[in-house]
């Protein structure tokens, strides 16, 4: 792979988690072996990465090569087609690393018709930044990561509800980074009562996610820590029409029935592209059984809690035959100071 495409991928990785329902994309413009422009898509509705890079390059873009992690768009959306900008800049060659699977595109043909060479060089790392985006756009729901921290015997808490701290401080730092890379974090009422969490990032320049609460009953205590942060949006989904608050950063959506599909579609329409689920057994199990989950991150502490398993992280009313059970594959594993981190995807 070209070093310039590596730079473009690095730019894309740096904005992963802040582009909402759009994919993270990076771009580099190169003239006579020198970088003359760089760009990344910073947020939904903002200039695309290649436009940012071409604006920086200015007149030096003429007869230059542009590297882009994702195929340049050829349609009108919240911004004009990027192929138009490439043509106007008089670029001589376009190299991109991922095909746009979310739309029928004619960018290559348009660029060829204007005498611009196009080279599609597939790169797995670049593609991995977009793979869940394509699925999310097709289904009109966010990319979903479920995170669980548990003991070796699968407990999120002991039977008395004590949960702090099962995993170590280093795992907490890793979770802060995870929150930073997601637009929103979702939880249930039970977790608020048990843990009184804040769902913040707590590191320099960290981006706090939108906080989403599922509560059919609407039995919420607005004195809890989460509600004291008035700088971050809080969305509540409930079946209780009597739940109200004067707090300006809280938006309450009233539903006849809190169906997961309806909620996820609404969250996506509001601009959440990447959703992190940090919840108790009930909500976690509902997501793990669904077809919506893209990634499952499991932190194991080297502890055995025992008990009847009131807070076992995966619980179902049905007992499945082993061949019919949900299957996952481990795509990454690491040791975080004696705690194990597993990243899994549903098969």
UniProtKB/TrEMBL annotation:
Protein name in UniProt: Riboflavin biosynthesis protein RibD
Homology family: In the N-terminal section; belongs to the cytidine and deoxycytidylate deaminase family.
Keywords associated with the record: Hydrolase, Metal-binding, Multifunctional enzyme, NADP, Oxidoreductase, Riboflavin biosynthesis, Zinc
Positions that bind substrate: 163, 179, 202, 278
Enzyme nomenclature, EC number: 3.5.4.26, 1.1.1.193
UniProt-annotated binding residues for Zn(2+): 48, 73, 82
Reactions mediated catalytically: 2,5-diamino-6-hydroxy-4-(5-phosphoribosylamino)-pyrimidine + H2O + H(+) = 5-amino-6-(5-phospho-D-ribosylamino)uracil + NH4(+); 5-amino-6-(5-phospho-D-ribitylamino)uracil + NADP(+) = 5-amino-6-(5-phospho-D-ribosylamino)uracil + NADPH + H(+)
UniProt keyword Transport present: no
GO biological process terms, semicolon-separated: riboflavin biosynthetic process
MF (Gene Ontology): 5-amino-6-(5-phosphoribosylamino)uracil reductase activity; diaminohydroxyphosphoribosylaminopyrimidine deaminase activity; zinc ion binding
NCBIfam families named among the record's database cross-references: eubact_ribD
Cofactor: Zn(2+)
Cofactor, how bound (note): Binds 1 zinc ion.
Gene3D superfamilies, per the entry: Cytidine Deaminase, domain 2, Dihydrofolate Reductase, subunit A
InterPro entries xref list: APOBEC/CMP_deaminase_Zn-bd, CMP_dCMP_dom, Cytidine_deaminase-like, DHFR-like_dom_sf, Eubact_RibD, RibDG_C, Riboflavin_Biosynth_HTPR
Function field: Converts 2,5-diamino-6-(ribosylamino)-4(3h)-pyrimidinone 5'-phosphate into 5-amino-6-(ribosylamino)-2,4(1h,3h)-pyrimidinedione 5'-phosphate.
Pathway connected to this protein: Cofactor biosynthesis; riboflavin biosynthesis; 5-amino-6-(D-ribitylamino)uracil from GTP: step 2/4; Cofactor biosynthesis; riboflavin biosynthesis; 5-amino-6-(D-ribitylamino)uracil from GTP: step 3/4
Superkingdom in the source lineage: Bacteria
């Amino acid at each position: 792979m070209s070093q310039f495409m590596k730079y473009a991928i690095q730019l894309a990785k740096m904005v992963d988690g802040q582009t909402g329902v759009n994919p993270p994309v990076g771009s580099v413009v190169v003239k006579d072996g020198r970088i003359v422009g760089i760009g990344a898509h910073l947020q939904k509705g903002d200039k695309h990465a290649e436009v940012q890079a071409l604006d920086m390059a200015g007149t030096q873009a003429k007869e230059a090569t542009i590297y882009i992690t994702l195929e340049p768009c050829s349609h009108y959306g919240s911004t004009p087609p990027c192929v138009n900008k490439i043509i106007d800049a008089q670029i001589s060659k376009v190299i991109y690393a991922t095909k746009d699977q979310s739309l029928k595109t004619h960018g290559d043909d348009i660029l060829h018709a204007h005498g611009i060479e196009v080279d599609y060089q597939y790169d797995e790392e670049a593609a991995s930044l977009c793979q869940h985006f394509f699925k999310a756009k097709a289904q009109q729901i966010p990319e979903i990561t479920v995170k669980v921290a548990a003991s070796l015997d699968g407990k999120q808490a002991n039977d008395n509800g004590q949960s702090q701290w099962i995993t170590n401080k280093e795992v907490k730092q890793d979770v802060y980074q995870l929150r930073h890379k997601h637009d929103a974090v979702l939880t249930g009422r039970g977790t608020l009562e048990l843990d009184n969490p804040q769902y913040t990032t707590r590191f320099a320049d960290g981006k706090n996610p939108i906080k989403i609460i599922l509560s059919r009953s609407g039995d919420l205590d607005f004195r809890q820590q989460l509600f004291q942060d008035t700088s971050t949006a809080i969305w509540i989904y409930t079946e209780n029409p009597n739940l109200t608050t004067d707090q300006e950063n809280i938006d309450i959506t009233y539903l006849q029935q809190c169906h997961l599909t309806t909620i996820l579609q609404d969250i996506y329409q509001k601009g959440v592209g990447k959703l992190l689920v940090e919840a108790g057994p009930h909500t976690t199990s509902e997501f793990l059984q669904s077809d919506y989950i893209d990634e499952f991150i499991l932190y194991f502490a080297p502890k055995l809690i025992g008990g009847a398993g009131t807070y076992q992280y995966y619980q179902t009313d049905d007992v499945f035959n082993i061949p019919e059970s949900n299957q996952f594959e481990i795509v990454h594993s690491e040791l975080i100071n004696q705690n194990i981190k597993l990243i899994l995807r549903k098969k």
